[in-house]
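Task: sequence in, structure out. Protein: Alkylphosphonate utilization protein.
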Amino acid sequence: MSDVLPSCPQCSSPYTYEMGALLVCPECAHEWSAEADVVEEPQEKVIKDSVGKVLSDGDTVTIVKDLKVKGQAQSIKVGTKVRNIRLVNGTDGHDIDCKVDGFGPMQLKSSVVKKV
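Result:
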């Protein structure tokens, strides 16, 4: 038997089978084309601020709208500078990890900041 099917690209299961023009993995139910032997590398996500500038680790940003903080009586005001941000794959759109003076460490959405 010289026709060996490739392993699943998602879970690496060796138990793939053909279903028409597709290959199917019975363990994770992933389907892919038999002609797509070349696996594309995932593209790096580009994170932009509220005005469309590309953000990177270590940038300084300012807050563009008042942000209420749970557990705090005061909010983060417009124009507050946040230095040395770190970009992360956070949950619910929070893709900036930072430390805000007076509030401590937190995660922010890139849509509420502007690059300085």
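The mean pLDDT is 88.
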